[in-house]
Amino acid sequence: MAAGYQQRPNGGGAPGALPDPSFLWGVFQRVDKDRSGIICDNELQQALSNGTWTPFNPATVRSILGMFDRENKGGVNFNEFTGVWKYITDWQNVFRTYDRDNSGMIDKNELKQALTGFGYRLSDQFYDILIRKFDRQGKGQVAFDDFIQCCVVLQRLTDVFRRYDTDQDGWIQVSYEQYLSMVFSIV
Q1: Which helix (H) or strand (E) element contains residue 161?
Q2: Which tens digit of pLDDT belongs to each residue from 65-106?
Q3: CA atoms of 140 and 94, how far apart (whole Å)
Q4: Is 35 left (phi over 0), alpha (psi -120 to 50) or beta?
């Protein structure tokens, strides 16, 4: 197959119901340390756990908030927070599905299984690149937060690529400036 992708990964796992709103409201109030009614990136980062006793990837936090902050206020209100909760819970389900050895980390083979399950067809060399790029611990594995970031970045890059791959054959021809525009629309 020429294309490196097939179907679009949905960025979520098995559909799950949200917990009781009063439970989520209690969580929201505990996370909203400054009582502003808005959870900012620092508050969300402190509230999230990646399973490695290290701070949650700031780029992942900003990316998640950017998806749900509909009014560009620099954080999420309670209604938006319920979406964040579901999004993270869905990613936890995906992560657990592919963390076959229950190590709390995704290794190269598990990452390959996950991305193949999302429809990507990538070389082993490219999986090495992904592991190096998203392994902040230097252990040859990817933690939960970095797994989200890896998948989100790969999806965004794929979306931009597809805009130029009009015949969907996995090949595009772009000028240098078009390439830069593609990359800068992601970062």
Answers
A1: helix 144-164
A2: 989 999 999 999 999 999 999 999 999 999 999 999 999 999
A3: 20
A4: left
